[in-house]
Design goal:
The protein is mainly alpha-helical and 335 residues long. It contains 14 helices and seven strands. Strands 1-5-4 form a three-stranded antiparallel beta sheet. β6 and β7 form a beta hairpin. α5 packs across α12, α7 packs across α9 and α9 crosses α11. It is globular, with a radius of gyration of 22 Å. It starts with a helix and ends in a 7-residue tail after the last helix.
């Protein structure tokens, strides 16, 4: 049995992975490294945290992998922000019964809960106590995002990193707080700003940067949708609340567009949680927001089955496997 396990490890986690399997193998190696560092089973947030950091204190052979996971985190925070806005809109519609309601009334009701919006923005460090939300412009929020992402700036693979300040994991955790509620409408514009801040516009040909614009307009690509929209908001001197309202509308119509596209492929499956008649909406089904499936937990479970990690972190077998991968890694292969 031990020999069979070694054989499976050699096949699944080769110490000199082929180019086609390199990214997969290096993600598993990263999980082994994180298990060793934390002396416990690694989590998805551990991966995202080190991706945001850029791997300043681990082997540079992980850089390419970390850049890919940072791109994932950027896309994830946009998706999560939209999902939580959809959840709030849907919950408000549910309180109105089964009839159609003007979309402007629903969004206006949510944006009137200014204490919740202000609290979320203050948690992000983007609003000061006593400031009037109605007077806050989108350009001011944009400037504050830049201020909070300007310490020790560095770039790699078309993506920008900084030390401390605001980041994707912080934003997602605020979205997930039960007390944020309608505040998610104020966080969504920040998610868009953060995505643009991450993109090094002069290096967009790198694969991680390209991942931010996959499927273009149909999936809110950063280059095709986010950058032009934000430029217009700033040029028009829009208030933050007006931008929040616009992006809330986009959230619902994006959801409906995807739902109808899937319905066209399979008439038995209508996944829309909201019904729409022009600018009027009606509650259809409950909706629960969540994060994009990363499959990190499944990968960790698989490493457990192979005897490479356990509740105390990396095992002796896992350490030998990790050392073999690192010893054979090309130090400059990530660059």
């Amino acid at each position: 049995e031990a020999d069979e396990l070694v054989m499976v490890n050699n096949i699944s986690l080769p110490q000199q992975p082929a180019a086609a399997s390199r990214l997969r193998v290096m993600t598993f190696a990263l999980l082994l490294q994180l298990a060793a560092n934390h002396k416990r089973l690694p989590t998805e947030d551990d991966v995202i945290e080190v991706a945001i950091d850029g791997g300043s204190d681990i082997h540079e052979c992980f850089h390419e992998t970390l850049d890919g996971w940072l791109a994932f985190a950027i896309r994830d925070q946009i998706a999560v922000a939209h999902e939580y806005v959809l959840q709030e809109i849907n919950a408000e519609l549910e309180t109105r019964g089964s009839g159609l309601v003007d979309s402007a009334e629903i969004i206006g009701t949510l944006l009137s809960r200014e204490d919740e919006l202000a609290s979320a923005l203050q948690d992000l460090g983007l609003m000061r106590a006593g400031e009037a939300l109605n007077d806050l412009t989108f350009a001011e929020i944009s400037d504050r995002v830049i201020q909070l992402s300007s310490k020790e700036i560095s770039g790699r693979s078309g993506l920008t990193r900084w030390r401390q300040g605001i980041d994707e994991l912080q934003l997602i955790r605020i979205l997930q707080k039960k007390t944020t509620r309608a505040g998610v409408l104020g966080v969504l514009p920040v998610a868009w700003l953060l995505a643009v801040r991450r993109l090094d516009e002069g290096e967009t040909e790198n694969l991680p940067a390209q991942l931010l614009s996959v499927q273009g307009r149909s999936r809110i690509g950063v280059e095709q949708v986010v950058i032009p929209a934000l430029a217009t908001f700033i040029q028009d001197k829009a208030r933050l609340k007006d931008v929040a309202a616009e992006l809330a509308l986009r959230t619902v119509y994006q959801h409906l567009q995807i739902a109808w596209a899937r319905f066209g492929q399979d008439p038995k499956k209508l996944v829309a949680v909201i019904s729409s008649d022009g600018r009027n909406w009606a509650f259809r089904n409950k909706f629960y927001a969540g994060r994009t499936a990363s499959r990190i937990s499944q990968a960790v479970g698989w490493l457990e089955q192979l005897g490479l990690v356990d509740a105390s972190g990396i095992t002796e077998t896992g350490r030998k496997r990790l050392d073999g991968i690192l010893n054979n890694a090309d130090p400059g292969g990530a660059e």
